[in-house]
Amino acid sequence: MCREGCPVYEVLRFETVAARGRYMLIRGLLEQRYGINETVRKRAYQCMLCGYCLYRCATQTTDAFIALRADVVEAGFTIPEIDRMVRSLVHYGNPFFQEKPKPQLAPRSGSVLFFVGCTYAYIAPKDAQKAATLLLRIGYPIFQRRDEPCCGQVLHLYGYLRDQAAFEERLAAWLSDTGADLIITACPGCYSALKRLEERGQAPHTLHLVEAVLEAQPRFHPLKLRVTWHDPCHLVRMHRMPELPRQLLRQIPSLRFEEMPRHGYNARCCGGPALFYDPELMLEVADRRLSEATSLAVRYLVTSCPLCEYALRKANRILNKRRVILPVQDLLLRALA
Ligand code: SF4
Fold this sequence. Notes:
Layout: H1 2-5, H2 7-12, H3 19-30, H4 38-45, H5 52-56, H6 63-74, H7 80-92, E1 112-115, H8 118-123, H9 125-137, E2 142-143, H10 153-158, H11 161-178, E3 182-185, H12 188-199, E4 205-208, H13 209-216, E5 226-229, H14 233-238, H15 243-250, E6 256-257, H16 279-294, E7 300-303, H17 306-319, E8 324-327, H18 328-335
Parallel strand pairs: 1-2, 1-3, 3-4, 5-6, 5-7, 7-8
The structure holds iron/sulfur cluster.
Residues 6-8, 18-19, 22, 47-53, 62 line the site of iron/sulfur cluster.
């Protein structure tokens, strides 16, 4: 049953936070048995949009959950922390109140656009730098622009769909101005946003870092390490990529790889989506994910998403779980021949 695998239901144990209960809640709204109220708002955001429903629920979509958030936003029942992020996006062009443009992490000219994303640029620039270095070392002629706009995925996920449409228009115009014929990003959230534009013919072909490295087929040195892989929800369920990261890790000689109990389509979310407005829920969800890793004899928990990395590192620190969270670009740079 989908409910048992829902990372929020595991913590809160309310029927209305898992898929079936959410649909019942939405049905009540559609039948006008009640209107948008505080409880509806709370339930609308007690969801990671992790896409486990895509894999387990017969509806195979989370679009209704985003539509519910859009209705909540339209009715003015917004969450103050999210509203602040949206104001920052409108004012500064990023959700983190950063006045400065993004750091320059790659050459200014080339034919392949390295799309950094706000989370990597402002929260983990060193990890973003490693992604750029990796791409250059395996032969991609990447370039980057400091005036890169936000991809707007935050607006999409939090239900600010009117603002999202305006952001996407601006992003499409900016992408066209760069003249890039290929985009590579290491952020699965940005990847989702760019793929939406690509499907509409408003963006060049976009690869996630994992796909880009696999396509380049670099040679790796042996690495005597034991690792596990945390599947970012966007990569594994939204873009159906359970195999590619594992294929990539298998190409590193001597690397010992162990799976967490929940992996691939069944992987548990890291809790990251709630990080900025419900840190307690985030911590509970991340705790369960980290506990899966602590049950293994591995040194590193490798992943490829700045939000997963940030959320898991934060939870790891607070909960003293003693795991090392490693972005895949870091591991691959160590293994490059
Ligand atoms: S998307 Fe994830 S968090 Fe939201 S209801 Fe489905 S399983 Fe639960």
